[in-house]
Amino acid sequence: MAAEVKSELEKTLKALLLISLxxxxxxxxxxxxxxxxxxxxxxxxxxxxxSNTVNVRLSEIRKAARKNKK
Length: 70
What we know:
mainly alpha; 4 helices; elongated
């Protein structure tokens, strides 16, 4: 029973996260989901993209972050 509750809670949290991402652009969605701990394939599935696209965007995001730190 505890596993069922956990599974339902995870589904609810993912649904809430998806709703909150609706108004964001793809790059913002990827950044948010990455910071939340989702992997590229999970992010791709959630935003309706491909893992390759997500990996490219993550690379761009990280490169820009490194550039801004300098």
